[in-house]
Every structure is written in structure tokens, then in C-alpha cells.
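Consider the record:
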Amino acid sequence: MTILALEIGPTRFAAIEIADDVGSDQLQQIPVPQTGAWDQLRELALGIAAGREVAAVGIASSGPIDMSAGVVAPQEIGEWQVGFPLVESIEQLFPAASVALALDGVCLSLAERHFGGTTEVMDSLSIYVGETIVGGVMVGGFAVVGRTGNAGQIGHVLVPGYDDPCPCGGRGCLEAVAGGAALTKWARGQGWGGNSVEALAADAQAGDRIAVSALERAGTALGRAIASVAALLDFDRAVIGGPIAAPGSAIWKPLQNAIALHARLPVLTGLRAVPSDLEDLGLLAGAGVIALISQEG
């Protein structure tokens, strides 16, 4: 029985088989293509399947999505902007498979709940800070999906004190301040010479003043957003992953300070923000969870 997990992310397409003896070294990925997105995703999926019959496929996709229709329209894939019938296309590719689609943040929250930092709590927020910001919410042990499947997008929560323009068309969104693309742009504007969020994280670790300032800026914004959402949803754990969120990163002190300053309700005194240990496999792990659940249904 072959089960596949697919990731449609802002920077990559990734695929892996879900099995006990499969490790991260067997993950296959390609950059998000400028053209021919379906053709390249199809080849990636077929390569992982390796000619075997596929029983289930779980898909974690950046949004927006229409979960009930199985349609995705990620901002980063221009030819899918009008909506691409991803579930139907995968079903045609693997006719014997059950296919499940969820927003990337929903898959992230499921991965943290089953394998990561929220296994012992019922209510939590999971965040991955890459080029964009992925977020997912767990309430009562269940992932919050929302009316269309797009719940949990903390990247578009407004952050007090900021008015940076966001790709969504708004201003002051968390992603416009603390997302990797925004951070690198801000740092370059201050004279930093790098070109990726990974390089920014490495330079901050090495003590580069501008890189450290960029991560501190992100930490403050993340802490304010987490405190705000915690007051709304009454959770006590936030787990944060991504290149800038490793233990010891410069984001953590300002992030914790912002939470302490703003999460002042008595019910929030136990709120903790901790690093994720899922590295870059969280979305695929969550996609594997929904693939397995689809078989049970």
C-alpha cells in the first residue's frame, strides 16, 4: 500500500512516501515552476510512486484553496490564479487513491499535534516562518479548518505599530513585517548584502548587526500577533519553525518580551512560545496525516 504526501508551497513542490522505513533523505523537491506547474508536479508525484498503485494522497497547499471543491489558487503560481482542480487531477493520475487536500497551515498544526511540540496540549498555534508565514490552529485537539478551508492564516493578522504593505493588498500584516521575503527586503534596505532568509538567519547567528536587527523586528511582530490571537482563542502553546526560529535565534528574546507585555489576561499567564523540531518536514508530515485519515473515511 503506497501513500504519498505532496506539498504545494510558496517556494517548492515537494513529495515523499509515507512509510515507517522512509526517511527525509527520500524527499524529492523542485522549485515552484514559472510555467508548466501541473506537468512538473505530475512528474514529481509519479517519480515518488515509482509505478506502484497508490492508495492515498495527502496534499498540503498554500492558499487560497477551496477545500470542498478540491481547487487551489496559490499566489505564487500565476497559471493557477483562476483556480486549479488539483484534487481531480491527482485522482485522475492515481485512480485507486483517496485524495485529501488541506491548507498548509492546517497540515502544519496536524504535524505538530501528532509528531511535534503540541502533542500534550489540546489548544495551540503552529507557525512556520519561511518566505511567507504559514499558520494553523488547534482547538480542543482538532485542527480549525474554517468555512472554505483557509482558517489559521496568522500571516494576515494585523500587527500594531506596523504599516508595511503586504502582497495580499493590505497593510500591517504579520507577513509584511516578519515573513522571510519582507525581512530580507528590510535588511537589504539597511545595507545587508544577502538574498535569502536562510542567509539572514546565518548572518544573525554570526552576529551581523543588521541581520540581528531584522530578526529582532520579526520577533517583536510575532510576539504581538501571538498574544493577540491567544486572547481570542485561549490557547497556551505556540510552536514556531523555520530558518529564523531555531533555538538561540535573535527572534526569541523580543518575541517572549512582546508576549509578556501584551498577553496580560490572567488566563494567558501559562502561554508559551517554543521552537519547532520538525524542521522543513512539517507540511509533508501533516499531509501524510490527512492521507491516512482519508483512508479511514
